[in-house]
Amino acid sequence: MANKDLNAAKRAKNDEFYTQYSDIQTEVNAYLEFDPDTFRGKTVLLPCDDPEWSKFTRFFAENFERLGLKKLISTSYAVESKKYRTPYLPTLFETEAPQFDESKTRVNGKIFVLDHDANGSGRIDLDDLQWKYLDGDGDFRSNEVKRLRDEADVIVTNPPFSLFREFLAWVLEADKRFLIVGSMNAIKYKDVFPLIKENRLWLGNGFANGNAFFSVASGTRTEYAEGVYDSGSNLVKFRNCCWFTNLDHGRRHQPLQLMTMDENRKYSRHREIRDAGYRHYINFDGIEVPFVDAIPSDYDGVMGVPISFLDKFCPEQFEIVGMSLDLADMSVIRQRLGRNDGGPVFYIEKDGNPVRLYDRLAIRRRKTP
């Protein structure tokens, strides 16, 4: 149901979902544990961000010195340019500033910059953040924000769900390091999956237990299923969100601890594996592995695994061959069924009938030297 709500949000262009401070902190710490200098000496850009609501700018500003940043830049998007409107009043942060301009507050974006100890406190932190209005509305596609992108070393943000594909292309166009939030569905995009296969993009450390909690702006419609929206905390829960990145983290290099094929047939906690073992696909040369923890450690052929495998993918242990969307031979299924049966996926034989499976990744074990 949470996935349904995320898709509904995309259709309605409701992109006002704010990542929690604790989730940002946990994610960034995973990269620092692998390499303490991940952000040292770097200019970090936080586009699609509004420090008056978002926690990205707050986190990086408060940890400016710990991270060793050279410069922090954050930009916000003008309220009048948003397709999904919520009630708007400028905050006291803006209205009490000497540069406040009532004619610009709704139509101009803002830029926030942190790069020195502006107040003479002896340290660089959130209190030193300087801001002004942008010339335009702050759209990341504008030349004004593109120039900031080109200046940056690392781009970090939760981009609009409805513009994820375009935003990622915008980042890659400038060949930047990045850490961004998006839907797991993006893995299947034809312009995203090749990057994963080529090891140019991977999943980040991830949200705790796969649950991503986002706050929503005051006045936002909250037509969510029971258990998805909590009015007390003003949080929405999505289960199919993840971090996409090309920054390295240690969890990515931890190999899965797996049993052999024979051991799985005897001891797997999944009855399906103990009873039926590993079935070959009807329309692809590979075996079906329906559970990540049931991947056999001693099989050298191609295996189809759930997409959730990417959350535990170690590139030194496995290589990604492709995806069922591209590899499945549907002509075999058409001959069996005498009709088209939807998009390309892998099929197995069960009780004499072809059984359609969910999307699968095709992987192969890397042989140790």
Q: What's the structural blueprint in terms of helices and strands?
A:
Elements: H1 2-11, E1 17-19, H2 21-34, E2 43-46, H3 56-62, H4 64-67, E3 71-76, H5 92-95, E4 110-114, E5 130-133, H6 143-151, E6 154-157, H7 164-173, E7 177-183, H8 193-197, E8 202-203, E9 212-216, E10 229-230, E11 235-238, E12 241-245, H9 261-267, H10 271-276, E13 287-288, E14 302-306, E15 318-323, H11 324-327, H12 330-337, E16 347-350, E17 353-356, E18 360-365
Parallel strand pairs: 2-3, 2-6, 6-7, 13-14
Antiparallel strand pairs: 1-9, 3-4, 4-5, 7-12, 8-12, 9-11, 10-11, 14-18, 15-18, 16-17
Structural account:
This protein has 369 residues and is an alpha+beta fold. It has two domains: 2-249, no CATH class; 261-365, no CATH class. It has helices spanning 2-11, 21-34, 56-62, 64-67, 92-95, 143-151, 164-173, 193-197, 261-267, 271-276, 324-327, 330-337; strands at residues 17-19, 43-46, 71-76, 110-114, 130-133, 154-157, 177-183, 202-203, 212-216, 229-230, 235-238, 241-245, 287-288, 302-306, 318-323, 347-350, 353-356, 360-365. It has an eight-stranded mixed beta sheet with strand order 5-4-3-2-6-7-12-8, with helices on both faces. A four-stranded antiparallel beta sheet has the order 1-9-11-10. Residues 1-13 have low confidence and may be disordered.
